[in-house]
Amino acid sequence: MVQSDAFDKHIGRYADLIIRQRWWVMLAAIAASFLLASGMRFIGFDNDYRVFFSKDNPHLKAFEEQQRTYTKNDNILFTITPNNGNVFTPETLAAIEQVTEEAWLMPFALRVDSVSNFQYSHASGDELIVEDLVSNGADFSPAQLQHTREVALSEPFLVGQLINREASVTAVNITFQMPEKSMDETPQAVAAARQLKDKIEQAYPVTVNLSGVVMLSNAFFESSMNDMATLIPAMYLIIILVTFALVRSVGATLSTVLVIFLSMLGAMGAAGFAGIKITPPSSSATTIIMTLAVADSIHFLVSMFAGMRKGMSRHDAIRYSIKINMAPIFLTSVTTAVGFLSMNFSDAPPFHDLGNITAFGVMLAFALSVTLLPAMMAIIPVKASASQSRFGNWMEALGEFVLARRKPIFYISSLAALALAAAIPLNTFDDNFVGYFDKSVEFRTDTDYINDNLTGIYQVQFSLSAGEDYGVSDPEFLNTVNGFVEWYRSQPEVTHVNSFTDTFKRINKNMHGDDAAYYGLPKEKELAAQYLLLYELSLPEGLDLNNQMDIGKSSTQVIVTLKDMPSSKIAAVGERGRNWLLQNSSLESYGVGPAVMFAYISETNMKSMLFGTFVAVIIISILITLALRNVRIGAISLIPNLLPLAAAFGLWGVLVGEVNVAVSMVSGMALGIVVDDSVHFLSKYLRARNNEGMGVEDAIRYAFSTVGVAIVVTSIILIAGFSVLAQSSFGMNSGMAILTAIAITMALVLDFFLLPVLLLKLDKTTLNETAKEESPVEQTTQAEVIA
């Protein structure tokens, strides 16, 4: 196929301008990039787990409404394990008391609950006594220690939440009220908690573990920082090694690294100007941009050095490379950007940011690859190696192999891909926000320990309304709540249920001389209201009932704590509770909480992304068809572009089987990447058919020999880049990266094996017909690579 004379003239003039004004072009490109990069000063980090949910998310709305009614549950669970395995010793009780006292002084602390300050109520004659369960525990006698142990292990509020049944592990729960005015509020609270942890471990024979919602939010932040500090240098090393191995030129390699570096800086600066806050998913944009940006430079350099080996001067080779690469790398950059922009269909805002930042970075990389890179190549006196790369010979041999064995290759490749695609139903939608972090992250190991030895971190919270002020004292309402609580306690997934009905029972017993026969709910509303008022007036400051009742005493909160389990089961447990209420009472309530929000996000996000991917497929297919100017070839290209994604998800179903919110993003993102290879292969194929007058087989040989090496090298870099990202300590990023690397690998295999065979079978056009369907997207010999 022949490009139009007008297009050639425009590109030729552009190339002449770049070479003639090379110094100014280089300086302008660098200056513009650094101007964009200056926006990085506006970048902030959002370490709140709520960032994963849009403001319109119904589960987030319900949770925030409940948090406005009751005390917030943003907490740090300070778990204490005595070395001797017994909580009820003077030393351990002293440690608990010290943590409890000093926790009140932590930044933004609102409430502290522990075994020591548990409000133990008991009768003294006709008087109700409410006091701390432990006071000066370091001086307790053996009899006092035994009494404290018996009381603690008989209290439903404590057992399974702040102490385990073996009395070998206990916890102090610190609730925070963050002002939400500064991004360093969470780090401040975490730093104070860690400082207290170190202090206690040095002073007492105990081990301290930290978990809770505040630690979760901080783990998101620290994981992002760790990834940016470790993965980016690793990615640069891979790019330098692979690029130098390909071009064997220090100047060309360093120029490529500069293009990548400026693309990354410019994209992050643009994010700063746009007011985007960095989150763990969007922090991976840096690594992804670096990975994708190198492809444009590779194609430009391979063509330039190929021209120089043919005898062209360096400047002529630059003109030649710009002319033949401008259209295809523009098309592949646009299709890649479209794929990432499809992430805006996600229900998780951080992935909008990841898609937008990366799309901008990809287009910036294209701009720098056709401005800065050729300008630098015109300045730096690079030379082409005289030797032909053996990889080029391997590509020619591979082309002959495919042509000679077209039938078995067709059946094996297509059946294997379809068989893998058939395994897609093995995937289930699930999320585990503790499992997002690998075991190198302290939050993960501490939380696993707490799940195994004390209590769960996953909670489902219900707000039950009596329908009137002070209605929580109504015996009928209390009996309904109690039935709900006892039903939940009988469920195998539940480790603890926190409800004020237990306190009502205890007060009723206290008011009858601590007679165990009266451990039950009051039978009269007025009596219950009096008990409630008397108890509330006896509570110290900071330990009010706002975490269990609203101010008007019209509703109460029931908190169900669950064992470690997949999010899909958390959603099911919450739904069972709602159904119990509907079937056994007139009450209606939905379970809310972070665990519930994460439980629903994967499935809803996948549905959104299926539509987003469909839109991306339509747009990308139209772009490819228009660029190639061949409807038949455009239709053929859909097969090697879509089948790798289906096969990758099928293989994921076989190997992993769990699709979380990040993995569900891969379809649209990877689509934009995998089309690049087929675009380059098909553009060379059509050039051979149209311009060189070749038949189908010779055109396939031509495509293999001219663009094969560049496709392999760019695919290797992409796979390597996403493999580096797969080392992230944050599971969302690593899972997304692994599946994307699998999809790119599948695409490389199918582009080299299935696509040529499909062309043999389906491209029945004559040479004259093909010549009429010219394409502006073409390259020339690119696989004549330097050894």
Notes on the protein architecture:
- By secondary structure, the chain is α+β, with helices and mostly antiparallel strands.
- The chain has 2 domains: 5-42 and 248-422 and 598-772, Multidrug efflux transporter AcrB transmembrane fold (Up-down Bundle), CATH 1.20.1640; 58-215 and 439-592, no CATH class.
- The chain is 62% helix and 9% strand.
- It contains 26 helices and 13 strands.
- The strands form 5 sheets. It has a 4-stranded antiparallel β-sheet with strand order 3-6-2-7.
- Strand 4 and strand 5 (127-132) form a beta hairpin.
- The longest helix is centred in the first third of the chain and has 35 residues, at 213-247.
- Residues 766-787 have low confidence and may be disordered.
Show the helix and strand layout.
Blueprint: H1 5-20, H2 22-37, E1 44-45, H3 58-69, E2 75-82, H4 90-103, E3 109-113, E4 119-124, E5 127-132, H5 142-152, E6 170-176, H6 185-203, E7 206-211, H7 213-247, H8 250-273, E8 277-278, H9 280-283, H10 285-309, H11 314-341, H12 349-369, H13 372-379, H14 390-404, H15 406-421, E9 428-429, H16 442-453, E10 458-465, H17 475-489, E11 494-498, H18 500-510, H19 525-537, E12 555-562, H20 567-584, H21 594-628, H22 631-655, E13 658-659, H23 666-690, H24 696-725, H25 731-762, H26 767-772
Parallel strand pairs: 1-8, 9-13
Antiparallel strand pairs: 2-6, 2-7, 3-6, 4-5, 10-12, 11-12
Low-confidence runs? 766-787
By DSSP, the count of extended strands is 13
Order of strands across the main sheet: 3-6-2-7
Strand content: 5-15%
Count of distinct structural domains: 2
CA-atom Rg in angstroms: 33 Å
Would you state the CATH class of the largest domain? Mainly Alpha
Report the sheet with the most strands, covering strand number, pairing sense and barrel closure. 4 strands, antiparallel
CATH architecture of the largest domain: Up-down Bundle
Structural shape: elongated
